[in-house]
């Protein structure tokens, strides 16, 4: 039986996450922006590397929730947090922005397809890290994207 209150909570969190993803995407649709020039203060990443990072992690979340929802063994990320983060940036740094944006949106659609599946109690995150409930994962992802959204904006403001 569906839990209406839980579904309402998931819907609210999903709406927040969806808005944050689309706000983030909008940063990369600005005409004339040089995504390879401005750098974040914290990581010294270009705006494009930030997109590579966010896309990598969003695809990981989508893959994990899809695997769990379809009854498959999840292929969770392995390694130290630093190595996994660096891998995500490195693997995607040379991918064109339009492709990264398409992949980010595809990952979002996958998340939306599975997020209301009540059979999913916990979603793995990374080897050695605790799994998250669906609500926790949506909240963590939204906050993560929001942090980088503002870092990219700050990088542009500091560059002008």
Q: Could you walk me through the main structural features you see in this protein, from its secondary elements to its overall organization?
A:
It contains five helices and no strands. The mean pLDDT is 94. By secondary structure, the protein is mostly helical. 28% of the residues are buried. The radius of gyration is 16 Å and the shape is globular. The protein has one domain: Up-down Bundle (Four Helix Bundle (Hemerythrin (Met), subunit A)). It is 64% helix and 0% strand. The protein has helices spanning 4-27, 47-69, 81-92, 97-114, 134-159.
CATH architectural designation? Up-down Bundle
Strand portion, in percent?
under 5%
Number of β-strand runs = 0
Mean pLDDT: 94
Write down the CATH topology: Four Helix Bundle (Hemerythrin (Met), subunit A)
Would you identify the regions where 5 or more consecutive residues have pLDDT less than 50? none
Q: How would you spell out the order of helices and strands? A: HHHHH
CATH level-4 homologous superfamily: dinb family like domain
The helix content is: 55-70%
Helix count, DSSP H or I runs of 4 or more residues: 5
Tell me, what's the shape? globular
Structural topology:
Layout lengths: L3 H24 L19 H23 L11 H12 L4 H18 L19 H26 L1
Helix pairs in contact: 1-4, 1-5, 2-3, 2-4, 2-5
């Amino acid at each position: 039986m569906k839990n209406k209150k839980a579904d309402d909570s998931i819907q609210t969190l999903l709406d927040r996450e969806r808005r944050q993803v689309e706000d983030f995407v909008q940063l990369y649709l600005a005409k004339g922006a040089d995504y390879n020039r401005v750098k974040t203060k914290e990581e010294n990443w270009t705006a494009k590397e930030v997109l590579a990072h966010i896309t990598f992690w969003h695809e990981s979340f989508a893959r994990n929730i899809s695997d769990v929802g379809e009854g498959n063994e999840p292929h969770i990320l392995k390694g130290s947090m630093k190595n996994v983060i660096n891998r995500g940036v490195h693997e995607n740094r040379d991918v064109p922005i339009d492709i990264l944006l398409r992949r980010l949106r595809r990952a979002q659609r996958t998340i939306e397809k599975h997020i209301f599946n009540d059979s999913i109690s916990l979603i793995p995150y990374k080897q050695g890290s605790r799994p998250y409930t669906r609500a926790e994962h949506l909240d963590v992802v939204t906050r993560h994207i929001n942090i980088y959204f503002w870092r990219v904006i700050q990088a542009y403001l500091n560059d002008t």
